[in-house]
Every structure is written in C-alpha cells, then in structure tokens.
C-alpha cells in the first residue's frame, strides 16, 4: 500500500470483531439513514458499500414465495423423525437454496423467518403444522438442529440468520391480534421460554419475532421483560423483527397506546429493532419514530441500539466481505439438486408414524392395492410451502413400486354435472378456463369432481382441465393448480334449496355464483342464495360406490384422508374440532365395510380423534404433509423398503373433551399436553410402531450418592428385538416426582436415543439424564430449583408405555417457606388463584392481578408463608374501576379460612396510580407460624405486591 493511501476504515477490517465493525459503521450513518434502518425495507447506502436490505425470507420447511424450491415435510413431520442430524441436513439445504435465491436477487434476505418454536400446547391451534412438539424441551432440541443447518458451522459468517417465532404464548388464531394469554410465572419459565432459550444458548439463531397476541394484558411488541429474557441468554447480536402490521396494531386493534408515535417509541424501548409494517412504504414508520424523537419519547441512543443490531446481523452474513464469506460462492443454480431430492425423500419417509398394525404392513410384493381418498392422488402445500419442482403422490408411488396393474385409484369424490336453470345448459370450462353454462349435454367436458373437506367446504375439480374451480377474478375459472393463497379462492359452499336445485357460494369473496344471461358466464356476484343461480345436479357416479367396488377387488385398501392445510385450520383460523370431516369418515367406513384389510392413512397437519375408525382399520399410519416426495416417502415405509422410524411428538387424544380449553395458556391449570393431561391419550407422545417386536427388559441408574443440579446420571436400558425384522427403536426415558411439594409434570421426557436392533439382538442403551432437567420454577425464590428427595425414571417406547422404573435420589437444599419480611412479594408469584386475571402493573413493565371480568371477587394463594415476626402488612394497590374496592387477608385455620385484616383501596380513576396501604391484623400474626395466606380481591381492585412489617 502506498504511504499516502487512506487507511482502511475499521468497518472494512474483517480482523475486527463484528461488534466493533458495526459500531464504526453506525457512527458513519446520518440520522436519516439510521431512521431508515428501522423499517423492514432499508435503502442502500452506496458510500459505505451497504446494499438494499430487507428482513425476512420464509424458510419454514423450504424456501417459500420465491419460486421453485425443494419442499420438505412440514415441521411437525420433520419433528416426528426425532433425527437431529437429519434436521440439520434439511436446514443446510434450505439455507443453501436461500443463498441461491439471494445470488439471483440480492434483495432476497439472508435473515430467514424460521424456525417456529411455539410449543404445540393444543391440537386445535390452526398453525399446529408449523411447530415441532408439545414438549418445549424437545421443541428446543429439534429447532436447534434445524437452525444449526440454516446458520452453518463457520465461526464468523452465517449461511443465513434464523429467526425464532413467535415470542410468546402464541397458540391460538382466534382473535390473535387482541387476545391476551394468561401466563403465570411457572407456565412462562417451565413451558414457554425453554423452547426459545435452547436455540439461543446454542448460538444458532440471531433474531426473534414477537407474537401478535398480548401476554397478561401487555402486547408482546412492547414487553421489554420478554425480549430481555432472551437477550440475556444470547452471547452476540439478537435482532428483534416485528410481525407484519403489529406496530400499527398497538393502536388500531389492541388500543394499548393512544397514538402511533407513543406506540413506536414503546416498541423501540422494549427492544424491537425492525418494523414490518406498511409493506414497502417506510415513510410511515420513519415519520412515527421521528415524531417520537421530537416529542422526547425517544432519544437517538434508542435508535442507535436497534440499528447496531441490524448492522451486526448484516456483517455476519458477509455483506461487506464477499471474498471471505464461505457461502458467497453458492450460485443461483443451487436449487432442486439431486442430493436435495434424495434428502426430501429420506425426510418424508423418516417422519411416517405407524400408529397401529395388525400385520397387514408392510405390504407384500404382488399385493393388489386400492388407493382411495382425497389424498390418494394429490400433494397439498401449506401457506409457508415453497413451489415444489415436482410432486409424487401416494398413487404415483404405489404404482411405481408395485406396478401400475396392481394399483387401482379412486379419489372418493362424487362426479357431477351442473345444469343452469337460467340457460338450461350444463357448466363447462372454455378453452381459456372460463366457466360457462352453455353445454347442451352432460358429456365429460362438464364433469366435475366434488370433494368435501368438512363444515360445508368443497373443492370442485374440472375433468376437462384437471384443475380446480376458482373465483379469484370474479369470473369463475377452472384453472387453479391447488388450494392456496392468504384468502383461499378455490373453496365453495353448496346450498340446497329443497326443490331439487342448489346454489353455490364462493367462500373467498362471500359472494354467490350467478350465471350471466348473455353468454352464460359464471361470476361470483350475488349477495345471498335467493339471488344466486340455481343449478340442478346430475350425479355421474358416486365416489363411495366406486370406492367400495375397488375395495372388494383389492387385497389391501389404503384410504388416504386428512386435511388441506389451507382449509379449516391454518394461520388466522383455528380448527373447529378434532374429528375427521364427516364425508371422509364415511368414505373410510364404506371401504372398511367392503374390505376390512384397510390401512387408514392420515395425511394431516395435526392430530385427530379417530374414534372407532382407529379400532376398525387393520393399520393406522400418519404423515404430515411431507412435501414433494410425500408419495415415495410414505410408500417406502408402507412396503417396508424403509423401516418405520417416525414417532409422535404430540399425543393424539382419545376424546375431544380431553384436550382442555384452547384459550387457557397455562398447561398446569388447563391440564394440557402429556405433562399434565388427566386422561390417557389414544396414541401417546413418543408412540410409533416398528415392523418387529421390541421388549424392554431392564433399567438401572448409575449415579453419584450426592447428586446435585450439575450432576448427570446414566440410565441403562436393556432392550431386545424379539421379532424377525430389523427394528429402529426410539428408547425414551421420562422423569416423575411423586410426593414433591412443588407441582411436577406427571412425567416429562429427559432423554432419548435411537437404536437399530437386528433380529434377536439384545442391547444395553446408555442415556444421559441431566439432573438440571428435573428442575421446576419456584415462585417463592423466582428461580429454577431441583427439590431434594426421590425421583422416578421410567423407560419405554412412549410416554404411555413405560414398563420399567428406577429410583433416583437427589441431594440439595429444601425450598424454605416464603417470608414476607425480606421485601415485597409479587402477587403474580402466587401458588394458586381463582377468579382473577393477570394484567400489566404499568404500561411498560411488571404484572399485577385484578378481579376477572364478570366476577365480583377473586383470590390468590401464597403457600407456606412464615408469619413469625410479622406484625402487620402493606399492600401496593390500584383501582381497576369505580365502586367498592378492598383486599382481605386470610389465614388458613384447619379446613377454613380466617379473615385477619382488610386493606381499603383509595378512591380515584387512574388505573396506573399505585398506593401503598396498610392492613392491620385483628389478631397476632406470629401465632400462626407457617401457614397459607390468601389475598382476597374484592371489587374494583388491582394488587401488585405485599410485604410484612415487623411486630413491635
């Protein structure tokens, strides 16, 4: 370098830490440039070498919305593999294809919005397909594996930067943008946060997205304590990107802040760094933040912190170091490579779960198979699927494996022709796909396959075009390749007028189909069925009749039923129930009546309650929507070419009444998941069969005499394959803590190991059990504790089949009684509650309790309170509204409660105005010793905390 050459600016020096480089970049940006960084679309800064930048490429199970890309199984299906190496390899392929899209278009973001780590608390959640497991720790383990592949293994440069979704307590779609999840501390720390903290601690994610909902009355986008809980665990940058439209929703929907400048300031102060709002128009976000700066609600340091995190992320993807970035050489052609196809097939097979089998599986060579049902000859995609380069259906794969002459296909749909009353002619698609009622005869051009998906929803597939009816353009066409879109345009309802005619409603627009008098073109135009066209329906053939005939002529029937991921359960829409659609259930019964040698194959995004169908079928098999290789992967397992390895990561309930309240986010109180469910599942968490027989013969535990929270025990499980085939067994160990003071899950997974057992082989499998995994959240100390005493370790093939048990003794210090003399005790840290709800203490931080809507009073219970030395009480209270308001203090006296003091709440109208009030006991508290204390909220009162004053 010449002596007079300018020095290399620090941000250009790759030898410096990313943080130092980012800080140097930051101080070179003008305020206007920094403000522009706060929106999802950031303009280029050419003088600094910064390109145009956007947050967010969807990469849930393949690259979505950017054209052709390898499509893998949905996350719930990937999870069913329980194969961490496989998930990492899938992540590597997805990350590579993101890089390929970025090479073709540099505005494609290397910040990917995946994985989703919300635990699958309730099977009616519409987005069930996006999560991994109902167990938060297994969710963390699987998500870490997938994110590790997305991130890559270079110590400095990231292949892509994964984003954890969605912080936090998000598992309901109904009113999701205004719903407040009630989340007490135990549910927060034991059930919700672990799924996020695992990938963060592993260093494989660099961003997080808050959820749409509120938690305890406060929107997550302004919940600094939640964001801080993650940033405290991340050694490095952590960009927080808002969900789409959420910043505006703080004002427009949630009504939490009165104006957008205040809301934007609150979000930035809480830690949101990038606003996904108003699509490509950044001026609105910038204007709101600038108004907040002008009003003194923010200072430039708040803006700088957000910009700095984004700069670190961008530097980590090698934006300024293309010569050093190991991923920069990935070209635009690294899509749909042969290795990617092979991996997609392997993943599809690995996630297939055999739930029941009387010996009909695996299918023998030479068998004649009828494949029946709506999933026999289609591969569905979901909202976050990419565009697969090809698809292999179940029927395709069976014909390829068994021979086309051995396979009969019947989709089970009724084939009909519709005749317009207006024109007197039948509906057919023209050469341009437009639907016209002008055919004089009901020939094949007019035939439509009518498939019912439940709750009155139908799709109609033209036999002439082979494509679905759609109302996306007002004029109806028969040219849709699949059901899809944010607003589905390919679903219809049929209204029976009771006089032999029907009318058809296009569900996407809500309009009813009209036939235009001139030309007979079908349009979605009428407001109600009375003004809609009336059609007579000619049934060309019955799908049930064809299915029964095919079943009688086959050796084995494979009935493929399940959901379409865009209908009756998806983002914005929770499932109406857990049952199979009525039409599909009846189709399965029709087939079973004709041929009991039936394999009920469920292709779905979530569990079902199958009832008697699960008992009647010779075998029951489940697969998620497994992407482009669904057919091959499923048939690989059905034929035994691949041994079944899939296991459930979410239990399938025996009865709909067993799953609890969708809107109760506390799994302890709600009895959710295998941790706390009071009823046995039909198919338990961890369940899945092999084609052999594995017996569990013995369990011993190697452990030190003085185990503590840092110790690791070894569970040694002896298993034997007593069958005549290789078995891929998933050995599972669960913990239980009967008799402990703190409530513990009925059982929780603490270790698992996949083993391959040859016929007749006996194996001792050693599984590490970390004592820290036995910890539960203690509200008294505000920390995780492992209570000393006896634990049980159970081993078996699922949470519902644990034939082996061994004892484990843990030393430690017992949790002491709660004291009121060492400082304030938060009301939210109660042990039990009734008729109260959790609410914000202040707008920006803290949690209090108040009487639930519709209840005149409620209470919180503090267990094991040491009242020695306590002479009086002080409470921090506020009003929730007008009227009488007081807090009564009660102490347990045997089986009844003794009211010992009352604190009145001062008058006022400001719910954020807190007062410290005294409650003088009518009796001497120290005489009660250690006992339970109940704080009864009476009327319009909010309670934040309580403390004791010393006697004398």
Note down, in words, how this protein is organized.
It comes from Cellulomonas algicola. This is Sugar hydrolase. Keywords: Hydrolase, Signal. Belongs to the glycosyl hydrolase 3 family. Residues 729-799 form the Fibronectin type III-like domain. With 952 residues, the protein is of the alpha+beta class. The protein has five domains: 29-316, TIM Barrel (Alpha-Beta Barrel), CATH 3.20.20.300; 347-411 and 544-646, 3-Layer(aba) Sandwich (Rossmann fold), CATH 3.40.50.1700; 415-541, Trefoil (Acidic Fibroblast Growth Factor, subunit A), CATH 2.80.10.50; 690-810, Immunoglobulins (Immunoglobulin-like), CATH 2.60.40.10; 818-950, Jelly Rolls, CATH 2.60.120. The chain has 19 helices and 49 strands. The strands form 14 sheets. It has a six-stranded mixed β-sheet with strand order 11-28-27-26-12-13, with helices on both faces. Strand 23 and strand 24 form a beta hairpin. The longest helix is centred in the first third of the chain and has 21 residues, at 84-104. The relative contact order is 0.09.
Which class do the helix and strand fractions yield?
Answer: alpha+beta
Number of domains: 5
Shape: globular
- The CATH first-level class of the largest domain comes to Alpha Beta
Mind summarizing the main beta sheet? 6 strands, mixed
Low-pLDDT parts are none
What Rg, in angstroms, do the CA atoms define? 30 Å
Reading side by side through the largest sheet, how are the strands ordered? 11-28-27-26-12-13
How much helix, percentage-wise, in residues? 10-25%
Number of helices: 19
Distance between the termini: 81 Å
Give me the CATH architecture of the largest domain, please.
Alpha-Beta Barrel
DSSP summary, beta strand count: 49
Strand content: 25-35%
Please give the oligomerization state of what you see.
single chain
What is the CATH superfamily label of the largest domain?
Glycoside hydrolase, family 3, N-terminal domain
Mean pLDDT: 96
Reported by name, the CATH topology of the largest domain is TIM Barrel
Pfam family, one: Glyco_hydro_3
Family: Belongs to the glycosyl hydrolase 3 family.
Organism: Cellulomonas algicola
Protein name: Sugar hydrolase
